[in-house]
Write the structure tokens for this entry.
Amino acid sequence: MRRPIFLFFLIIILAITAVFFTYPKFPQPFNWLENKLPWKLGLDLIGGTQLVYEIDMNQVAGNDRDSVVSGLRDVIEKRVNLFGVAEPSIVSAKEGNSYRLIIELAGIKDVKEAVNQIGSTPFLEFYEQAEIAVGASTTPAQTDQPQFAPTVLTGRYLKNAQIIIDQTTGSPQISLQFNDEGAKIFEDITAKNVGKLICISIDRQIGENDCARVNEKISGGKAQITGQFTPEEAKRIVSRFNAGALPAPISLVSQNLVGASLGQESLKKAVYGGLIGTLIIIVFMIVYYRVFGIFAAIALIIYIFLSLAIFKLLSITMTLSGIAGFILSIGMAVDANILIFERTKEEIKRGLTKITAIEEGFKRAWPSIKDSNVSTIITSIILYAFTTGFVKGFGLTLFIGVLISMFSAITITRTMMRIFIKK
């Protein structure tokens, strides 16, 4: 009996902490969290900044351009949304031979800040030594200077980058590792250019130390940049490469402030709708299940505050679609309780004592609870992994909500019933 009581008090403390954390405008020590971890609202609720980038496709083959645009979109989304919680809106557009990316960032009214979020991600290219045809218009001085032409190997094939230290000079160098496709391309390039120079270009700039002579075919997909970097420059370049080397250069052509498409009024309606729906669920559970319903109502309230606390702790951007996912999870949170209570009522009708019936009810309801929640979790993961923007936010909030609802139904409700239901 001591263990359920201890667990119950632990749950109460956790719930109270979640309340203060979710709404920190209470006396100290919680109101400092308002500045540290404020609620983050999406573009549809508070507006933000729109940036339009032009994509330079001059060096990209026609059949590769769609994949380059897709890669750019993924790179930029990863930079501003490492966990998919900032929910930037990134769409591509094509007009004639012009390719563009339209990026909308929620809550950012300072255009310079928005541009900094996109960052000056470097464009990585490899150049090979080009043959020069000696003709009437070619001078001897020109033939002495090596000429270079870009290859198909760019940052789109980069897997990761890291800093290494030259054992002789002690200067930092940058080691590059390509993916399988990039490794094969790099091997073909080096095989074709044995005895010639290959240069690594960052943002189409080739420095004095960016070229190396190929002595033999290089397998394994590894290369090095040995420019005169300071440690700070090397760290910055490596971090940008790992955040995503751009598969094609981009340039900012337009910047605008975007107003909230839905605004605070829609947010209030969503919140009020969620509150009314929650109250209806609580009333139904209490009227239909009486004492059991009271336990379910308490567990549901704790569930709501725990979920909101986790959303805030993870700095999840709340859009209307994300709020819809959370409200949907509130309705689903009582499903497990209903299954448990119905099973328990069946066991009581069979003549078992209430304590025994409760344990049997939980035991027999668990397979159904597990299967239904696992199917919802799989759906949420698919929505999060294979979609973008607002749909991703819906999947994320639904996923977190379902996980916490399993905890509230199995742990919180069961603990209260074990303590307060007597033989």
Observations:
- The first strand starts at residue 40 and ends at 41.
- Residues 354-386 form the longest helix (33 residues).
- The chain has a mean pLDDT of 78.
- DSSP finds 14 helices and 13 strands in the chain.
